Amino acid sequence: MKEKGRKRLAGLLLCLGLLSSAALADPLPAHDLVLRTPAEDSGTTCSHDFCFWQMTEGELDEDIVWQVLMQPLTVLNGNQRDQIRVRARPEKDCQDYVGVVTCASQGVHVLSSEGDWTLIEAYSSAEEGSKVRVWATRFQGYVETKLLKEVPVDDEYGIVIDKLKQRLYVYRSGHLFSTLLCSTGFPREDTPFHETPAGEFAVVSWVGGFWSDGGLYCDYGLRINKGIAMHEVPCTFETDQATGQEIRDYHRCERYLGEKASHGCIRIQRDPTPEGVNAKWLWNHLSRKPVTKVIIWDEIGRVLGEPDEDYPLYYNPAGGKYYHSSPECLAVLKKYRPLRAFTWGELEDEAFSGLQPCPACAPEPDREGIDRANEKNTRQ
């Protein structure tokens, strides 16, 4: 994006209260060119000061993100493996179902209450084989008011997952703490139920390791939505020819981190970020009680724009093949750190054109990566 265009966008975000004045002075990372909120076309508004449904997807202001992360969740009371079919009308005998909500973990947006019934909105969590064939799209409908329950959330950590950028952001005590590569669901025409629903969720169960389709083993599973978990990028088990020992091979799935690839779960990198964060770290640090909130931004109607030309990146001049988000990336040997700085705008210069994004520190995508993210966004 040209400097004039960057300032115009940043100024607009500032006027709308979507960007702090401090952020205006800093180079912008890859950011949305279309400003959308989850419920902007729902025909409803709410009175909440800080609400997921009214916030801008891809929000850059960490104060706003943190305020939303700290709001309690409204869930449907029940077992974390149970789901409720939501009715089109506030009637007990209504069998016109408009969506599915998972109990205990999936947050719903309360729009209005009418005695025994409450109008809500959410993203449908219908699974394969569901009679309610509404896959990961936003809907409005009625549930019994007695099912609603407010759940407090942890005040130290919160998680944001962006389906457009395929990044997982860890917030800690009000600030963005670490950024990781992830892979959310990759639906095809015959598997629309593989789409990862957006919305608000709670980490409700440390399910641990489990086997997935195709002989893939997924470790450090944290359930957020019935069969959907955040977990380490899957591996297969191979036999080391030299030692005869069984070893884990991550190549099959690790190469797709940073783009859609899963059956609905959120695959997370195993290499530690410069802050030491990976899937195992999340397993060890997220709160069990009160629950850690997870926000998932949808990609519907969004377009990813380029970072500012002067956005900082780093590289190893002693023959490194990657560019990095931090001068202290742990994927680089200590003797080569701190890494040397350059800018995003120089990525296509001859000196840097051969560098690839580091798989450990989740740097901003290059132009090819941004184009690929927009091309793969089939939910325009």
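That was protein one. Protein two is written in the same sequence-then-structure order:
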Amino acid sequence: MVTGQIAKRWKTSLGWITIVDSLCKGCGFCIEFCPLNALEESQEFNQHGYHFPEMVNPEACVNCEYCQLVCPDFAIWSEIEEEHPD
């Protein structure tokens, strides 16, 4: 994460999705290409005047990492929680 940036994190069924809204330039690729429609454009603006994505359906997200692959600004990423054997 970039120093001084505030990240928003959402718990998903397999891990976490993190978005740093100040890095987003509002292209909407992550929203458009999410295969499970887990993301939506926020009503808020970031400091650059762009609507950034927000997680609206974290239960649907399977951390496929497609959002981070299509983001040209590295503003969103997926973290998969590894299961710990008991």
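The first strand starts at residue 8 and ends at 11. Keep this in mind for the problem set.
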